[in-house]
Write a structure and sequence with these properties.
Elements lengths: L1 H13 L9 H17 L3 H7 L5 E5 L6 H11 L5 E7 L2 H15 L4 E4 L12 E7 L8 H14 E10 L8
Parallel strand pairs: 1-2, 1-4, 2-3, 4-5
Helix pairs in contact: 2-4, 4-5
């Protein structure tokens, strides 16, 4: 796993992607995510999921610095929904930043776990929502993506939702 951590660090040092919410460009990406989630939570499937639940557990895989997860929690918190957020990634430094920045933004603790997204089922937790945002999917070949989705399906509650958000890259395709 250390090898993957170093490869990802090297990749993000070379490839310019606004993943750091402490930067102006990264914070703009966060604000854009908030606006997208404000629309998404109005979908009937999303409304059905959160209806009558005292608490929602969101698990963001490949979270990087947590922009997607923190944005979704911010939107749901404005609806007075109690949320537990867990952010997972292979990069310890990204998770450290996510935990600190997320606490500053949400005024609540965030659980961070270093784990390979293909092995989220080993966390022995269940989530109402699994989120994968940003520049994550290209890191996986088709076989590994199947492993990731299988692992996520074992982690997701029966009535849960998995949200993959890749619109950050739409103009780079």
């Amino acid at each position: 796993m250390k090898k993957h951590d170093n490869l990802l660090k090297s990749f993000y040092n070379v490839f310019s992607f606004p993943e750091d919410p402490r930067t102006e460009e990264g914070f703009k990406r966060y604000e854009k995510a908030v606006r997208r989630f404000q629309i998404l939570i109005e979908h009937e499937w999303f409304k059905a999921l959160i209806q009558n639940k005292p608490q929602i557990h969101i698990l963001e895989i490949c979270s990087g610095m947590g922009i997607g997860g923190v944005a979704l929690v911010k939107v749901l918190s404005e609806k007075n929904i109690n949320i537990n957020l867990t952010l997972t990634d292979l990069r310890e430094n990204a998770l450290k930043i996510a935990k600190e920045w997320g606490y500053k933004e949400l005024k609540k603790d965030i659980c961070v776990i270093k784990v390979d997204a293909r092995k989220t089922h080993t966390l022995e937790t269940k989530a109402d929502i699994i989120l994968m945002c940003g520049l994550s999917a290209p890191h996986f070949n088709p076989w590994d993506m199947v492993r990731l989705l299988a692992s996520a399906s074992e982690t997701l509650l029966n009535d849960g939702l998995m949200i993959m958000e890749e619109s950050d890259r739409i103009y780079r395709i």
